[in-house]
Amino acid sequence: MTDSRHEADVAFIKALAELLRENDLTEVQVKREYGEEDSLNVRVSRVLPAAAPVQVAVPAAAHAAPAPAAPAAPTAAPASTEDPAAHPGAVTSPMVGTVYLQGEPGAPSFVSVGASVAEGDTLLIVEAMKTMNHIHAPRAGTVKRILVGDGDAVEFGTPLVIIE
């Protein structure tokens, strides 16, 4: 590789890093072809600071209304102003990817709210770059909350499940 091409590659990588910052991206991957057997594969990524929790105002009339007779969704949890990532039982995503709550479409979920789990049990899958990564329970306990939905995109450090 010539010095001029090396300098051009360095400039190209710096431009990719700037693109990440300007567009608030977490990762970009590019393959630059120079010839039949000559290419440059570049992957630039960064970890964003954890997002502040979003607080939602609930009208006072909603508190006075009787609860509906329909059962709550399994991922529903009481509204809380605390950050789920700060909970001592939070299991966070080790990577950027897409969450799947079951092993295949139509199969039962790995866990549900109220289920007991043993250390090492699969809680869900995070797919990253076509690789299915099983997220295991770091300790035994009961699943108190499932904080993500099937097919949700997650970042590194996103709280997924609360186990107590």
UniProtKB/TrEMBL annotation:
CDD domains: biotinyl_domain. GO terms for cellular component: acetyl-CoA carboxylase complex. PROSITE patterns: BIOTIN, BIOTINYL_LIPOYL. One of its GO terms (biological process) is fatty acid biosynthetic process. GO terms for molecular function: acetyl-CoA carboxylase activity. Pfam families: Biotin_lipoyl. Residues 88-164 form the Lipoyl-binding domain. It comes from the Bacteria. Residues 70-90 are annotated as: Disordered. InterPro entries: AcCoA_biotinCC, Biotin_BS, Biotin_Carboxyl_Carrier/Decarb, Biotin_lipoyl, Single_hybrid_motif. Residues 70-83 have a biased composition (Low complexity). Gene3D superfamilies: 2.40.50.100. Keywords: Biotin, Fatty acid biosynthesis, Fatty acid metabolism, Ligase, Lipid biosynthesis, Lipid metabolism. Pathway: Lipid metabolism; fatty acid biosynthesis. This protein is a component of the acetyl coenzyme A carboxylase complex; first, biotin carboxylase catalyzes the carboxylation of the carrier protein and then the transcarboxylase transfers the carboxyl group to form malonyl-CoA. This is Biotin carboxyl carrier protein of acetyl-CoA carboxylase. It comes from Ruegeria pomeroyi. The lineage of its organism: Bacteria, Pseudomonadati, Pseudomonadota, Alphaproteobacteria, Rhodobacterales.
